[in-house]
Amino acid sequence: MTSRALIVGVSGINGTALAETLTAQNWQVWGLSRGRTAVPEGCQAIQVDLTDAAAVKEALKDITVDSVFFSVWARQENEKENIRVNAAMVRNVLEALGDRLTGGHAALITGLKHYLGPFDAYGKGDVPMTPFREEQGRQPVDNFYYAQEDELFAAAEKYHFSWSVHRPHTIIGFALGNAMNMGQTLAVYATLCKVNNQPFVFPGSQAQWEGVTDMTDSHLLADQLLWAATSENAKNQDFNVVNGDVFRWKWMWGEIARYFDIEPVGFDGEPQPLEARMQQADAQWREIAARYDLKEADVTRLASWWHTDADLGRPMEVFTDISKSRKAGFTGYRSTRDCFFELFDRLKANHIIP
Fold first, then answer.
1. Counting beta carbons within 10 angstroms of the beta carbon of residue 196, is it exposed (0 to 12), middle (13 to 18) or buried (19 or more)?
2. Which end of the chain is more exposed for a tag (fewer CB within 10 A), N or C?
């Protein structure tokens, strides 16, 4: 029988990779989104406002799936609102599916803000010792990730399905219009540097420049999601998920610069955030898009300066232990440098960057 999946947030960086992975495995895939970006090929698109419980129930009334995957959030003005809005989106979908998910599986993608705290208190509390491990649990702060988890746990108990929670680090992957996309942001930044004959200046902190870190390829995350949905060892468990290698930005920055044939400049005493330095990027990118006949002239649909600043500006070392999923049977691995280069190649092939 054909397996059936619902991906909530199908057009995002995680949803796109997961849809590609599942359709390649001959799954039947429905994708929920707000309709701002086309869904991946092979998916059946459902456009709905996830905050509207009645609309979600109506949209899903005729759909029965084996697995539902959540990769969705909507940034609000504060964490209280983040909790209200983002928890409701998970709850609305699970309540709409109800007993039709009995015996199935639901997976929730969150991230390392589980350990670092939400944006309102990012890295300001008693951050656990690295590498982060699942056993370290929750931090004593409000966090919409925890609220989403609680909705998942409650629905799993009510409707009798298994669950898994997946915590990637910063994700490398292909998606347009995504709010958190470091790989594409760095590709756009490097392109601007090359066209304007400017150096590729590291924007972040000394701690990130010198410390050990890791990242997560979107297709590796998709592989873990597929494994968790079909493995007895993964039921009702939380898992970190990263590529499996570690690096320092003081090395990786030069590797990315060499790919684009530009001059790298490392940390020179003070962070130089991109958001403050990219004030002219909108106009410059429109000119570049016209000159090279690129598909996307709106730089805000490609680059998320604020999010890349947040990741590269962290005042502490951040990397992750993935022993738990390895012991449970998931042994996926990616080379982070290769993941960057593969993304850059795909952006070129799709005429997103010149």
1. exposed
2. N
Is 200 in contact with 264 (CB distance < 8 Å)?
yes
Domain with 17 in it: what CATH number?
Answer: 3.40.50.720
23: nearest Cα among 1, 46, 4? 4
Same domain, 306 and 164: no
Match 């949803």 to its residue by tokens.
15
Query: Stretch 213-230: mean pLDDT, rounded?
Result: 98
The predicted pLDDT at position 148 comes to 98
Please identify every residue annotated as catalytic. 113, 145
Domain count, the chain: 2
Residue 327 lies in a domain: no
56-84: b or e for each residue (b if 16 or more CB lie within 10 Å)?
bbebbeebebbbbbbbbbbeeeebeebbe
pLDDT single digits (tens) 237-269: 999 999 999 999 999 999 999 999 999 999 999
Say if residue 139 is in the same domain as residue 12. Answer: yes
Query: Count of residues for the chain?
Result: 354
Does a structural domain hold residue 37? yes
* Res 173: pLDDT: 95
